[in-house]
Automatic annotation (TrEMBL):
It comes from the Bacteria. It comes from Pseudomonas soli. Residues 418-438 are annotated as: Disordered. Its EC number is 1.14.13.-. This is NAD(P)/FAD-dependent oxidoreductase.
């Protein structure tokens, strides 16, 4: 069925968790809307993650309020279980999602309010557009990547399992949650692994019988509105793999992984690393210890009965690769056949041709409400708070954005006395055009 000539109040682009949350809140507020998804619901969880990936947070935390996972509350849902969860959510709330429809262009109408939306299945008109196309759309590989056809190079988004890689050692660049988990999986599969470690936060998986998600919640960290100065681009190294464990770079090195500093350049088959490995690891420790201190203070202040855990403060000795770090690596000599770039993602809003971006193409908005009236963003990192790009956080941002839309509709539905009188005389005519598929 073509979508040609459909008119809808609000169009939501993307049916990942952000689009699903948005649709739930719009439904609750009675806003007619449609969600268009170019592939399948929660496609990123289906095909954009490696095979063994589990959620970073336990099932009781990484979910929406309206549905629990069919799992032990402290277990970590596998990536397909997360995708199934959002499919189930759409069914439970009977949300108007159309899959297999790509939005190709959105432009503001010149001669009437609203937007014209071009899709691969026809042209739609909408009063409002919510961009819920994800925080991590375009894998980013830095320009320093060597131009060497002999090396197998992939982004972490294209990594699925150790078997897909050619034999040989692997250099993983980036030690956030993706890089460190992939590096550990490869090491456990018998690969020689070099892991390039930059600045990172490294919370304990759990402390005093509480997961770090709980600690970040009660300490107000998920709700932090801005990143600490200088830590805006700092990645967080956590893992739910194998039941969940604290990421400990020294332990990984003692098990055989070679840690190196930030990757600086490649030249003539030689990789060079910055001399900052120990500093990065020590700053990660500081972040780890700061959370333990804040947790202890919280326990004391509130008189909680949570068992002390002094062993969490023990530190392994520095492995040789930290005390005497490699500054360069001849890739052929080290038999490195693969580089995995766990270097993050960018966004791509080329389809959204409206006045909602700064000169660098960065969305301009306040808690998701764009400076271009009628355009909204959802799911972006730090949209309103630290938790904004995560499962539980996007649900709360969606509530705010849906509330803004409902309020705007109230303003636009207002009729002054003269208009109301005219309406009463001609009851069949209404100026409010909010019909749609819902
Ligand atoms: C490796 C990894 C692990 C993560 N683990 C966790 C975790 O454990 N817990 C957690 O809370 N968060 C986690 N996140 C962060 C976040 O939850 C996910 O990135 C999540 O997928 C973001 O959801 P979203 O709906 O905002 O975006 P996406 O899931 O990316 O959804 C956007 C959707 O929009 C669609 N789309 C894009 N462009 C168009 C278009 N033009 N027309 C139509 N459709 C379009 C896409 O197909 C996609 O389905 C993780 C992220 C990564 C990268």
């Amino acid at each position: 069925m073509t979508l040609n000539n459909i008119e809808i109040d609000t169009l939501v682009v993307g049916a990942g968790q952000a689009g699903v949350a948005m649709s739930e809140h719009l439904s609750k507020l009675g806003v007619p809307h449609l969600v268009l998804e170019r592939k399948r619901i929660a496609e990123a969880w289906r095909t954009g993650r490696w095979d063994s990936l589990v959620a970073n947070g336990p099932a009781w935390h990484d979910r929406f309020p309206g549905l629990e996972f069919d799992l032990d509350a402290d277990a970590f849902a596998g990536k397909d279980q997360v995708a199934d969860y959002f499919e189930q959510y759409v069914r439970k709330y009977n949300l108007p999602v159309r899959t297999g429809v790509e939005v190709r262009q959105v432009v503001r109408n010149a001669d009437r309010p609203g937007f014209t939306i071009e899709t691969n299945q026809g042209v739609i008109r909408a009063n409002r557009v919510v961009a819920a196309t994800g925080p991590f759309q375009r894998p980013v590989i830095p320009a320093i990547a060597p131009k060497d056809d002999g090396l197998h190079q992939i982004h972490s988004a294209a990594y699925y399992n150790p078997e897909q890689l050619p034999e040989g050692a692997v250099l993983v660049v980036g030690a956030g949650s993706s890089g460190v988990q992939i590096a550990e999986e490869l090491m456990r599969a018998g690969r020689q692994v070099y892991l390039s470690v930059g600045a990172h936060d490294r919370p304990p998986r759990s402390y005093r019988n509480r997961d770090f998600c709980w600690w970040l919640g009660v300490l107000g960290e998920w709700d932090a509105e801005i990143a600490k100065p200088g830590r805006e681009h700092v990645t967080i190294a956590v893992s739910g793999a194998r039941g969940g464990h604290t990421v400990d770079f020294r332990a990984l090195a003692h098990q055989g992984m070679t840690l190196v500093g930030l990757t600086q350049s490649f030249e003539g088959g030689v990789a060079r690393f910055q001399d900052n490995l120990a500093e990065n690891i020590n700053r990660g420790d500081e972040n780890y210890l700061a959370l333990l201190d804040a947790a202890d203070a919280y326990v004391e202040r509130n008189g909680l009965d949570l068992p002390p855990e002094p062993e969490a403060r023990k530190r392994l000795p520095d492995p040789a690769c930290v005390s005497n770090p490699l500054r360069e690596l001849d890739l052929a000599q080290a038999n490195v056949t693969t580089i995995i770039w766990a270097t993050g993602y960018g966004v791509d809003f080329s389809w959204l041709q409206v006045d909602a971006f700064d000169a660098n193409g960065k969305p301009q908005h306040q808690r998701g409400v764009s400076k271009e009236p009628g355009v909204y963003f959802l799911g972006l990192p730090w949209l309103s708070r630290r938790g904004s790009s995560f499962i539980w956080g996007v649900w709360h941002d969606a509530k705010h954005v849906a509330g803004h839309i409902a309020t705007q509709r109230t303003y636009l539905a207002y009729r002054d006395r003269e208009q109301r009188t005219a309406d009463e005389q001609q009851p069949s005519i209404s100026n409010v055009s909010t019909f749609g598929a819902h």
